[in-house]
Amino acid sequence: MNPRREVRGGRSALFDGIEEGGIRAAPSYSHEINEHENERALEGLQDRVILLKRLSGDINEEVDTHNRMLDRMGNDMDSSRGFLSGTMDRFKTVFETKSSRRMLTLVASFVGLFLVIYYLTRLI
Q1: Mind telling me which residue stretches traverse the membrane in this protein (predicted)?
Q2: What is the pLDDT of residue 81?
Q3: Residue closest to 74 by CA, chosen among 63, 84, 85, 66
């Protein structure tokens, strides 16, 4: 017998089943490994879906809360606008009926009173 052929035969028996960088496993064992990997991947995806669902629910609650807050702010602004327009109408009436000198005195006294209160609150 040829010794070279025996080495080659032993080598092929030793490395039988290796194909291009991987070991060729029995089909049933390979199927079990793939099933196990698929189940792990599926569990990971389920966890991610649950997390995303919870996160989207939290975002929805936050958006609803902000919408309610903005609605209240809008209503408050409308009521403030009505109050200020009534006040401005009263000022117009006062300015039209009173003399300009008397009105100037009234406005100056309000500004002076405001400045005094401002400085007193700053000192305290």
Answers
A1: 103-121
A2: 86
A3: 66
Looking at 1-10, 79-88, 108-117, which range is the least confident one?
A: 1-10
> Does the pLDDT of residue 5 top 80, yes or no?
no
3-state SS record for the chain: CCHHHHHHHHHHHHCCCEECCEECCCHHHHHHHHHHHHHHHHHHHHHHHHHHHHHHHHHHHHHHHHHHHHHHHHHHHHHHHHHHHHHHHHHHHHHHHCCHHHHHHHHHHHHHHHHHHHHHHHHC
What does R_g of the chain's alpha carbons equal in angstroms? Answer: 43
**Which two tokens mark 67?**
């919408």
SS3 for 50-65 is HHHHHHHHHHHHHHHH
Range of 37-46, 59-68, 73-82, 101-110 with top mean pLDDT: 59-68
Tokens at 113, concatenated: 């009173």
